[in-house]
């Protein structure tokens, strides 16, 4: 039985950090540089995935034990991670999207099902199956072969497939975990990676919801960091001391 705890800390940290940065600091900086409001951007969700994919590739650029590459799923560029030390093939997905895929009984063509069917056939739990087993294994094998070819690895090198599921909202990463499912979309193993979520050290100040107040007063809506607060108080103390040194008019 495979064990998701076999991943190294550095491997987990690299993935978590890549996703965390993308959904927090990176997307905030990206939208502000473009002078765009995320609520009005049609490409906002896709832009986050571009940032995640970039971060993941960068994180493992010089790691000889990890292969990261894109593969095509229709018009979508799917990033796939292969950890040579564990033989695990990993893909990333939002928690909410996974729930949608799981509910759709006709989603046997989804890559998650194909990967689970190919690599996690030995994983079972004592639970009634929700889906009928797809008998078209030849099509599934060809689809998986394309993914492995894009990674320049053979199917035989892959032991199992794992999903990295995360949930983010309002530029915050709320949760992240790694799980393995079988071809019935049943979760056979799940490990929380929440402990690896670091505190964002963004230099970008937060904004208030009322933009009109900001236009009238540029300082409205700014949230000062502890360092900035200390500097501001120091300036006030200096200004107060200077005023006290001015002799009173008689």
What is this structure's SSE topology?
Elements: H1 9-33, H2 44-59, E1 66-73, E2 76-83, E3 88-94, H3 95-103, H4 111-119, H5 137-150, E4 160-169, E5 172-181, E6 187-192, H6 211-216, H7 226-244
Parallel strand pairs: 3-4
Antiparallel strand pairs: 1-2, 2-3, 4-5, 5-6
Helix pairs in contact: 1-2, 4-5
Describe the structure.
- The protein is of the alpha+beta class and 250 residues long.
- It has seven helices and six strands.
- Strands 1-2-3-4-5-6 form a six-stranded mixed sheet, with helices on both faces.
- Helix 1 (9-33) crosses helix 2.
- Mean pLDDT is 78; it is low at 126-133 and 200-225.
Features:
alpha+beta; 6 strands; single chain; 250 residues; 20% strand; globular; 39% helix
Helix/strand/pairing class, anyone? alpha+beta
Radius of gyration: 24 Å
Percent in strands:
15-25%
Helix content: 25-40%
Q: Give the beta-strand count.
A: 6
Largest sheet strand order:
1-2-3-4-5-6
User: Shape from CA axes?
Assistant: globular
Order of helices and strands: HHEEEHHHEEEHH
Q: Biggest β-sheet, characterized?
A: 6 strands, mixed
Question: What is the tally of helical segments?
Answer: 7
């Amino acid at each position: 039985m495979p064990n998701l705890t076999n991943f190294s800390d550095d491997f987990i940290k690299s993935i978590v950090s890549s996703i965390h940065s993308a959904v927090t600091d990176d997307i905030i900086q990206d939208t502000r540089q473009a002078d765009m409001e995320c609520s009005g951007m049609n490409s906002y969700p896709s832009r986050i995935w571009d940032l995640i994919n970039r971060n993941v590739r960068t994180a493992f650029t010089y790691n000889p034990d990890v292969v990261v590459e894109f593969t095509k799923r229709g018009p979508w560029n799917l990033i796939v991670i292969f950890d040579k030390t564990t033989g695990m093939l990993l893909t990333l997905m939002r928690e909410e999207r996974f729930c949608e895929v799981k509910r759709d009984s006709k989603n046997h063509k989804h890559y998650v099902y194909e990967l689970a069917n190919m690599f996690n056939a030995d994983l079972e739990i004592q639970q009634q199956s929700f889906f009928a087993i797809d008998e078209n294994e030849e099509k599934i094998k060809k689809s998986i072969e394309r993914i492995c070819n894009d990674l320049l690895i053979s199917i035989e090198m892959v032991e199992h497939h794992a999903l990295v599921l995360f949930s983010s909202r309002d530029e915050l990463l709320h949760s992240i975990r790694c799980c393995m499912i079988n071809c019935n979309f049943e979760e056979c193993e799940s490990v929380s990676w929440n402990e690896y979520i670091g505190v964002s050290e963004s230099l970008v100040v937060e904004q208030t919801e009322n933009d009109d107040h900001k236009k009238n007063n540029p300082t409205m809506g700014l949230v000062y960091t502890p360092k900035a607060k200390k500097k501001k108080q120091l300036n006030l103390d200096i200004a107060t001391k200077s005023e006290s040194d001015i002799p009173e008019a008689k």
